[in-house]
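User: Structure tokens for this complex, please. No commentary.
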Amino acid sequence: MSEIKLYTKKFDFYYGHLKALTDINLEIQKNKVTALIGPSGCGKSTFLRSLNRMNDIIPGTIIEGTVALDGKDIYDKNIDVVDLRRRVGMVFQKSNPFPKSIFENVAYGLRINGERNRGKIAHRVEESLKNAALWEEVKDRLDTSAMDLSGGQQQRLCIARALAVQPEVILMDEPASALDPIATQKIEELIFELKNEYTIVIVTHNMQQAARVSDFTAFFYLGELIEFDETDKIFTNPSQKKTEDYVTGRFG
Amino acid sequence: MELKKNKLHQTPVWWRRLKEQVIEKFFLVHGMLAVLILMGIFSLLFIEGFPAFKALGLKSFFFSTKWNPTSFVQESYGILSILISTLMVTFGALLIAVPIGIATAAYIADVAPPRVREVIKPVIEVLAGIPSVVVGFLGIIVVGPLLSRLFGTSNGLNAINGSILLAVMALPTIISISEDAILSIPQEYKNASLALGANKWQTLIRVTIPSAMSGIIAAVMLGMGRAIGETMTVLMATGNAPAMPHSFLDSIRTMTATIAIELGETVQGGIHYRSLFVIGFILFLMTFFVNLISDLVLEKYQKVNR
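Assistant:
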């Protein structure tokens, strides 16, 4: 039944001499939400950014082992990073819309990929904003600056922007950590909707959030993957003592 | 009783209010100082120049191309040719300096490895410190002969020479201010662009530079101000001919150069003397409008791209 979208095998990651991840073996299933949890500095964000090679822009990073998308190693020499990032989209912790209009923000990914047909772009922008549950709020002011939106709206705009290029996987790095409870709830509902079409990997500090939105949960600690299982199991009956201590709030 | 516990509240209220007001006025005066100086310059130029305006009329200034205030036969005060000459070298300089300046700034801020940046930055700062007379030398000795050989003209002291030199002088301003603007663009914008599958070049052209546009426009305007106001370099390198230019290969004389050359040799208070103040006044208006227009452009731009 289940299909593996992304997997890592014996994956190590270094920032220069500093080893940030050790021997990560993880399988991420298609059309599921996988949550990465763990205390600050445990390597979960580093791991997330390895999945679309955003770490490449940090000088001095070294990787060992395999990260594969649909069975193909994404660190292979023949892989085009630009193409990879189009297939594996990303939403950041701090909402970061461009200082452009709402419309241009969503259209950006299409334009850089060479789309020139105005009708097509307009159609895709509308569709993406609808999928990100933002359309109703902004449809009358697409030409105004994206910076005038509220924090929660900006984050949904960033999701719409990521959706517009029709990725297969969406990586989310603590997408709701800077938002109020209502905006957070909207994002979580959105994640629930999106998994029908996309594979989602989400880093979160909020354990209730992981429990609410994810199907699978991976617990990272000090650069190692301690436990990976179905979310229900991780939160009710973890097999590792460390995991239990963390999810019950005894440390972290 | 409650208040007495807190020592801060023991100073009388009237004293605190007075202090507050004195401090406020102190800063107000300093804020007004720049405005006062500006108005002072404006009125000086106007008062000194107005009699010439009154005696000669608008027409003889603006609708004549002949500037010959020392003629024995018929003095003429047409500033059209020197006005156009000024505009020509200024825009010529911008045409050269703006693309090079923005490209250099983008390279230093966004592309260059740290070691290259550490070499280029101080070099540009040194370039900014070269006196304009020295740049003028360069125009006469290097650029002039080069141009005359290139275009087959008898000498190379012409508008294009002035444009090149002014571009060199405006470049450090344009580069360093644009660079600051580009550097101030948060990494988050670039990450967002890269994560959408943009390459470095697309990110620079479509996100980083547009986001920094307000700073870049300010940089260009400052560079333009530098170019319009520059005197010594253009005086030395443009051939000093107060005639109507027909192309960039003609010798010209700018408004600033005209004032610098002639003011010392006129009768103080005479028509010639006052007409030079008229030129200064017009120069002042030009820079004023350059700044005004750039402010308007910026404001309009920022409304959408904020």
